[in-house]
Amino acid sequence: LVRLRARLARSQNSLGKGLLTLLSREHLDEDTWEEIEDTLLTADVGVASTQELVERLRERVKVLGTRTPEQLRTLLREELLTLVGADLDREVKTESGLETPGVVMVVGVNGTGKTTTTGKLARVLVADGRSVVLGAADTFRAAAADQLQTWGERVGARTVRGPEGGDPASIAFDAVKEGIAESADVVLIDTAGRLHTKTGLMDELGKVKRVVEKHGPLDEVLLVLDATTGQNGLVQARVFAEVVDITGIVLTKLDGTAKGGIVVSVQRELGVPVKLVGLGEGPDDLAPFEPEAFIDALIG
Ligand code: GDP
Predict the structure, then answer these.
(1) Lower Cβ count inside 10 Å, N or C end of the chain?
(2) Which residues are recorded as binding GTP (predicted)?
(3) Is the CB of 112 under 6 A from ligand 1?
């Protein structure tokens, strides 16, 4: 965790440092406030959140009078924490059924890191003593099932797969059936994320979801979003949120961007908390999203 924090800090703290430098200027004139706004927008904080934050900062700085670096840091930390939401429930739930395994569906656009995230999540669960079955329902991308199976072998989880181009819903069904037969604790289902048409996506994910729910409740639908795609990724995320009820967001590739502000805008946009973050390609590079650690890394 310490290592992950350090990595996050390296990639993130240009935003916080930039903000603190601007806020420390002797004269906080309109140009400076505009620069602060630009800094936030560039970091993908989003328009609404940027406006809200700048308004709060203006008020609080006015009340403050003197501005020591430590005061500014505390103030910025508090306001960013409020924006990110310190008290949201960010637990990934996997224990809905008493008799049946918990089921987690992983959705998102291809290339965002769905399969990798599914593998890493399996590793976390297995390390926690839970038995996991993987469902390779991404039958669109040819290599996805192999990739998932490799992850499964690496972490000690069985992979249920079907023929290439097969029906994702029937694979999801089989995976849950297998999970029940094996008395597994959790079934993780990797899905396809082709955004050809909204109805196509809706049909496919909707069917996977309905089929899974024949066995019992679905614990989580995690939406994987690539942090490096910024506002563009947000537009795509919105389409998924319209198609299935997302219960949590996994923000991947945070190691490759200084635009950590996407955490704020995606939660606000979709009304769903960021639960996990991806900080690299390796098996240990998935971490729970911790608002305080994140903000501290952001401010530096
Ligand atoms: P999918 O098409 O959504 O299933 O995407 P993949 O899981 O195949 O991931 C696409 C690429 O992104 C792969 O090269 C992954 O190794 C890489 N990737 C996934 N998550 C992360 C992350 O958190 N950080 C970095 N740097 N790369 C990641």
Answers:
(1) N
(2) 108-115, 190-194, 252-255
(3) yes
pLDDT at 130: 95
Burial of 206 (0-12, 13-18, 19+ CB in 10 A): middle
Which secondary structure element, helix H or strand E, spans residue 136, and what is its range? strand 132-137
CA torsion through residues 163, 222, 227, 12, sign: negative
The pLDDT tens digits for 64-107 are: 878 898 999 999 999 999 999 888 999 999 986 667 899 999 99
Note whether ipTM > 0.95 here: yes
The answer to the question of whether 120 is labelled as a binding residue is no
More confident residue, 46 or 135: 135
State whether the beta carbon of 259 lies less than 6 angstroms from ligand 1. no
Query: Is there an atom of ligand 1 within 6 Å of 283 CB?
Result: no
| Ligand 1 atom at shortest distance from the alpha carbon of 112 | 3
The CA angle 29-32-37, to the nearest 5 degrees, is: 130
Residue by residue, DSSP assigns 201-233 as: HHHHHHHHHHHHHTTS---EEEEEEEGGGHHHH
Distance of alpha carbon 211 from alpha carbon 198, whole angstroms = 20
Query: Tens digits of per-residue pLDDT, 237-295?
Result: 888 888 889 999 999 998 877 778 888 889 988 999 999 999 999 999 999 999 998 88
Torsion of the alpha carbons at 143, 144, 149 and 155, rounded to the nearest 10? 120
Q: Is the CB of 150 under 6 A from ligand 1?
A: no
